[in-house]
Amino acid sequence: MTSAERSPLTRKLSAFVALSEDELAVLERLHQRRRSFTAGRDMVHQGQSARVAYILSAGWVCSYKLQPDGTRQIVDFQVPGDFLGLRSVLLRTSDHSFEPIVDIEAAEVLTSDLLEAFTQTPRLATAILWAASRDEAMVVEHLVGIGRRDAGARMAHFLLELASRLALVGMGSKEGYDCPLTQYHLADTLGLSAVHVNRVLRQLREEGLVTFRDAHVTFHDYGGLVDLAGFDPAYLDQTGPLLK
Question: Which of these, 23, 111, 147, 226, is most buried using a 10 Å CB contact count?
């Protein structure tokens, strides 16, 4: 089995398109430039002009924007199988930063690599566009969450979304998943203070819905959490349409 066939990205794209041998070969080439990055050190800076993207193979990354006063808003988290900086390949500069939460492994993808892959395999280009569209849909949901959901529903929705995303690459289920995020990550994502995050997680645990402890999320009442969050995973488009 090739590295591309083992790649979480391949597993993710296979939910959308039945990948051919030629398309797997192109994905193999996109995985050739393998790099490792250390936790806590930005791999892409806001305003950086280097036109390169990455395919995350292992580990977790957060994408964030810094405000003039030094505060941080985390826009999203990237998990194995996700592209990082795909938009900055087409734009002149990156409009946000990427910071590994743990030590990670990623494949570096140059603009020329991506354009060549799109030219050779239009279906693969469509599948990557699907993945990028999912990312945009998640950002919209996060905006709705911060603006309109109360703290409990906001947290529940976020934890459920992560479960769905991780399930697509074989790393999560309705029972739970490993999660390296701290309460400070959650605070910067959900627009809450770390103290409020702690309070909300305790409330969800005491209600018998979910426990987040020792870097692991455990669902005790998945359906109850879905009801609390009003979680409808349709925006994630996890099951297709599968292109033949």
Answer: 23
